[in-house]
């Protein structure tokens, strides 16, 4: 048997480690009621799961294989793609289902938008949230009552969700979701545009869908005729 000689011009195979922040969904019985709550969350914040890696934790359920197949299909119908499954007996896993996972480290609870309180009088003026510190990887900032201003950076793996607009006076490398309370006039501004995802009023674009010509620039993100538009800002 002859062996081909290695091609010195071909680079060797390289393996790299990379960490991503994932959201864990843990359904509770009855599953139909839990799915109804998930639908309510989707109406309040349509872009909440946009581009978000999701792990399904089944430790609180007792399922047979067909139950799991139906649950994964129900989530896929809601545009929630499951990357892996925790807490499932091996007997109910099968080809075509997400793979089993273990060994994840908890990173705390992720807040979700609450139900708006009914109001008879006119609502109070929107309140702004100003963050003097950067938003670090793994952090999620949720403020549905108005704008969010970040005086520093939004790191990769971090997330800012605002009912109004988002102002980032540093690099935007994580996720920015503006207009999450149903405000198509909301905008996103940042001094250095390197996001994982941007969204306004439920419409979103991931990094792969964004024009690379704007990367690293000062950028405004807005909605124009139900489409996300990027505009380069002049540096002062």
UniProtKB/TrEMBL annotation:
Keyword Cell division carried by entry: yes
One Pfam annotation reads: MinC_C
Domain Septum formation inhibitor MinC N-terminal spans what residues? 13-77
- Per the record, the domain of life is Bacteria
Region of interest called Disordered, as start-end residue ranges on this chain: 96-122
UniProt keywords (A-Z) are: Cell cycle, Cell division, Septation
Cite the Septum formation inhibitor MinC C-terminal domain residue spans from the record.
131-229
**Is the keyword Hydrolase in the record?**
no
UniProt lists the family membership as follows: Belongs to the MinC family.
Can you state the subunit structure given in the record? Interacts with MinD and FtsZ.
Protein's UniProt name = Probable septum site-determining protein MinC
Q: Which organism is it from?
A: Methylobacterium trifolii
């Amino acid at each position: 048997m002859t062996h081909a000689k290695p091609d010195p011009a071909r680079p060797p195979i390289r393996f790299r480690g990379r960490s991503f922040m994932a959201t864990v969904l843990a359904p509770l019985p009855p599953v139909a009621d839990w799915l109804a709550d998930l639908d309510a969350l989707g109406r309040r914040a349509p872009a909440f799961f946009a581009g978000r890696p999701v792990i399904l934790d089944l430790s609180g359920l007792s399922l047979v294989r067909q139950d799991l197949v139906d649950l994964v299909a129900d989530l896929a119908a809601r545009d929630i793609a499951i990357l892996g499954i925790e807490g499932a007996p091996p007997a109910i896993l099968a080809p075509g289902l997400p793979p089993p996972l273990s060994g994840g480290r908890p990173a705390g609870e992720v807040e979700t938008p609450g139900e708006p309180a009914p109001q008879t009088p006119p609502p109070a003026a929107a309140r702004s949230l100003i963050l003097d510190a950067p938003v670090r990887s793994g952090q999620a900032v949720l403020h549905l009552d108005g704008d969010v201003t970040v005086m520093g950076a939004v790191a990769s793996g971090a997330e800012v969700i605002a009912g109004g607009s988002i102002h980032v006076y540093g690099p935007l490398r994580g996720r920015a979701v503006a207009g999450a309370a149903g405000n198509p006039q909301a905008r996103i501004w940042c001094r250095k545009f390197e996001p994982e995802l941007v969204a306004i009023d439920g419409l979103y674009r991931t990094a792969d869908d964004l024009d690379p010509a704007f990367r690293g620039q000062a950028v405004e993100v807005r909605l124009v005729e139900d489409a996300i538009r990027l505009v380069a800002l002049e540096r002062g």
